[in-house]
């Protein structure tokens, strides 16, 4: 390939990469288009981009093409990242975050990964790249496999090396603008609810489509609109497990992150329901009528709530509930065990 051809290819690659970065800022998931661009560059029929999920301590598939399920399962496994000699070499040398089969000090074809997974499916070459941002934050990996040992070409390897921090930045960038990057690694599940009510996963996590949680969230979005202040709530699922739910406004709608938590402040299901009504300004009598309880029982619950929150008044309890996101998201499910004291 001539120098002029290399220069043209580099320019076209840079322009498309810039488009992908711009689309990511506008709310698109960069991984599928990035993978298509990179596998074309590397003349690779197969490739995968993974994201590192810090909360779960595991890699998740962001985009994949060409690989069999067996290969996918292998390259996202912790065993691969711990034991594969090529990956260990990349992880140990921050100055060279990518290696092709040709760039190693040993014959990669003799490794377990090559012998058991890649060679049987016709792959004779390839490249791996650890996606690390300029700030040194590890966000995932790129793996591509080729049918010829000499691929990717030297020109393609130079391009990958020159833009590797930009590739990592695209993966680190919040999938939806307005949602801080710090939100994503700390949540078990992050979902975008668009203005039309549709749900879409963020950072490779599966949305809660079809669940009572998602329906409750849609009701919140419909009631408050997509420009309401950021809020947090607690939600009780059908198994009796509590989840802390954070709702953040973004241009495309709202992002919703969820984490399973212990019952806040040791409050029972019933006490959180009553606290929610206290936040709405309801009296003990109104709360008693709402939950078909005696006013004396509600007063007893209120006393226990104030004690568990270590506050001296209903107003202070309501302020703390707003501050810590103790408000309930929709009507929670009744747990299988009695909602006692």
TrEMBL record:
Keywords: DNA-binding, Transcription, Transcription regulation. InterPro entries: Sig_transdc_resp-reg_C-effctor, Tscrpt_reg_LuxR_C, WH-like_DNA-bd_sf. It comes from the Bacteria. PROSITE patterns: HTH_LUXR_1, HTH_LUXR_2. Gene3D superfamilies: Winged helix-like DNA-binding domain superfamily/Winged helix DNA-binding domain. Residues 260-325 form the HTH luxR-type domain. This is Helix-turn-helix transcriptional regulator.
């Amino acid at each position: 390939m001539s120098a002029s051809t290399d220069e043209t290819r580099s320019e076209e690659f840079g322009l498309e990469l810039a488009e992908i970065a711009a689309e990511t800022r506008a709310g698109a998931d960069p991984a599928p288009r990035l993978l298509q661009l990179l596998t074309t560059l590397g003349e690779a029929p197969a490739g995968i981009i993974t994201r590192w999920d810090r909360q779960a301590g595991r890699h998740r598939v962001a985009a994949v093409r060409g690989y069999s399920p067996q290969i996918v399962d292998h390259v996202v496994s912790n065993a691969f990242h711990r034991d594969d000699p090529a990956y260990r070499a990349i992880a140990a040398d921050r100055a060279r975050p990518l290696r092709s089969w040709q760039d190693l000090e040993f014959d990669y074809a003799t490794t377990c990964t090559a012998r058991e997974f890649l060679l049987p499916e016709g792959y004779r070459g390839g490249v791996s790249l650890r996606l690390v941002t300029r700030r040194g934050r590890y966000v995932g990996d790129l793996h591509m496999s080729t049918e010829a040992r000499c691929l990717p070409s030297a020109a393609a390897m130079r391009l990958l090396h020159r833009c590797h921090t930009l590739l990592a930045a695209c993966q680190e960038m919040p999938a939806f603008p307005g949602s801080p990057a710090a939100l994503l690694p700390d949540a078990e599940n992050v979902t975008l609810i668009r203005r039309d009510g549709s749900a879409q996963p963020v950072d490779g996590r599966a949305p809660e489509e079809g669940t009572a949680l998602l329906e409750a969230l849609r009701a919140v979005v419909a009631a408050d609109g997509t420009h309401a202040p950021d809020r947090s709530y607690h939600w009780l699922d059908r198994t009796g497990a509590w989840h802390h739910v954070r709702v953040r406004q973004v241009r495309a709608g709202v992002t919703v992150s969820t984490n399973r938590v212990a019952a806040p402040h040791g409050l029972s299901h019933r006490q959180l329901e009553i606290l929610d009504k206290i936040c709405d300004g309801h009296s003990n009598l109104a709360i008693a009528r709402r939950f078909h309880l005696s006013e004396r029982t509600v007063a007893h619950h209120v006393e226990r709530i104030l004690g568990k929150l270590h506050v001296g008044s209903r107003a202070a309890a309501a302020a703390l509930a707003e501050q810590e996101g103790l408000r309930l998201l929709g009507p929670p499910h009744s747990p299988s065990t009695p909602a006692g004291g």
